[in-house]
Amino acid sequence: MKKVFDEVEEVDYFRAVISDSKLNAGSPWTANQKSELIDVFKNNPDKKYIEFEVRSDKLPINSPIKKTDKIRIYRENVYKIISEGENIKIPPIQMF
To answer: pLDDT 10s per residue in the chain (96 long)?
Structure first.
């Protein structure tokens, strides 16, 4: 993740990349991934990003992320990686 400043909205946020490892291209996303990420982008083609807020107090001591920080996942930063153990089968698949 990378901390970014949005000059238009005048807010700091962390920009995240989602890359989930699957056994094959047809392997399903988890129910949470599907409802909170995949379906949101699929059903809203003009949506540029999804923003989440950190709600946990249980973060590592040296974590750059703190409670109430914003995390954005942009549609172009969602990938599926096909792997078998440590072997990546094909290049990452950009989902959107």
So the answer is: 889 998 988 889 999 998 888 887 788 889 999 999 999 999 999 999 999 999 998 999 899 899 999 999 999 999 988 877 667 667 777 788
Indicate the number of domains in the chain. 1
Distance CA 31, CA 51 (A): 18
- Distance from C-alpha of 61 to C-alpha of 35, rounded to nearest angstrom: 31
Range of the domain at 58: 2-94
Asked whether the whole model's pTM tops 0.85, one would answer no
